[in-house]
Design brief:
Oligomer: single chain
Strand order of the largest sheet: 1-2-5
Number of helices: 12
Structural class: mainly alpha
Order of helices and strands: HHHHHHHEEEEEHHHHH
Length: 320
């Protein structure tokens, strides 16, 4: 596994490599090293027992699937290099995935949240996440050159992520999006344009206050801290929780603002296909899998309204 990790290091994204590394060290290494199994003697049963140990440690089925993916890839490489005749991971039955249903805010909760962060450095990030349903990496990666004030558009094409690589926490800045579908152009509405102007003015204010202590390394980025530095992904998530607690709001994750955006679109009868394009999902099935429960609630509400109407008319007919 370690040898394979070294080989793929320069063929995958840094964040992907960091994820592989965190899975191999320490869990895979810690489990398999004492067993002293050569790759030629590796069997499906050994891998199955490892997955069972992950479940015993309290990990979810979805997490086990992630470990399986990396083991499967590494053993495929071993087959390719004639180190194995076949991939034993193919014979292992996997546990069911745990489908996470994100929390989401109602329209009134979103509006109250906006009011609580108005004219702060957190106003723009929260607006972008809740209105456009942007991922955290897309929010923090938004740059001024992505805004077309003349044609009133906003293009998602930069990202800022965070990953542990070689035991060091690193900020990864990319001029690319998660997938091809994530690259998208959205309409620039007045409320977002005003928030962008507020953010720019705030940074000018902080620049004067900080003087030489203000960094100019990230001038084109819109979501920055008081010293001109990039807002780190981990920081915005933690700060978001503190904002909710301080204002006695219902606790959700920063990513749940994306779910809130989807729920509001569904409530307005926006088709799933349009929501897919708005959120930048690769496939319609991804959108459907995540938000079908929200759509179902809307259908139940419609069914209840219809039943109420039919019942009222039925009783009216009986009375007459």
């Amino acid at each position: 596994m370690k040898k394979w990790l070294h080989i793929v290091k320069y063929n995958v994204e840094e964040s992907t490599y960091g994820g592989y590394q965190s899975q191999i060290n320490p869990r895979i290494t810690t489990y398999f090293t004492p067993l002293n199994i050569s790759i030629k003697n590796l069997r499906a049963l050994h891998i199955k027992k490892f997955y069972r140990s992950l479940m015993d440690d309290g990990l979810y089925g979805t997490t086990v699937h992630r470990y399986h993916a990396i083991i499967h890839k590494a053993l495929n490489y071993a087959v390719k290099m004639d180190m194995l005749d076949s991939n034993p991971a193919l014979k292992v039955d996997l546990p069911k995935k745990n489908h996470y249903k994100g929390a989401y805010y109602s329209l009134s909760e979103v509006q109250t949240l906006f009011s609580s962060v108005k004219n702060t450095i957190f106003e723009l990030p929260i607006l972008l996440a809740a209105f456009y349903g942007l991922r955290r990496s897309e929010v923090l990666g938004l740059r001024l050159d992505a805004i077309d004030f003349e044609n009133k558009t906003l293009t998602i094409r930069h990202t800022v992520t965070e990953s542990t690589i070689d035991n060091k926490r690193q900020i990864l800045i990319k001029n690319s999006t998660k997938t091809k579908s994530s690259y998208r152009t959205l309409p620039l509405v007045d409320v977002i344009e005003k928030a962008i102007e507020t953010s720019i003015n705030l940074q000018q204010h902080y620049k004067k206050l900080c003087g030489s202590g203000y960094t100019t390394d990230y001038q084109d980025y819109l979501c920055k801290d008081e010293f001109g530095g990039l807002i780190k992904p981990g920081y915005i998530s933690k700060k978001f929780q503190k904002i909710l607690i301080a204002n006695h709001f219902r606790i959700i994750r920063f990513h749940d603002l994306r779910h809130s955006c989807a729920s509001l679109l569904i409530a307005e009868d926006v088709p799933l296909k349009d929501i897919q394009e708005w959120l930048g999902h690769s496939t319609l099935s991804t959108t459907a899998d995540i938000y079908v429960h929200l759509d179902s609630k809307r259908k139940i509400s419609s069914a209840n309204k219809l039943a109420e109407k039919l019942t009222t008319e039925l009783f009216s007919s009986s009375s007459s």
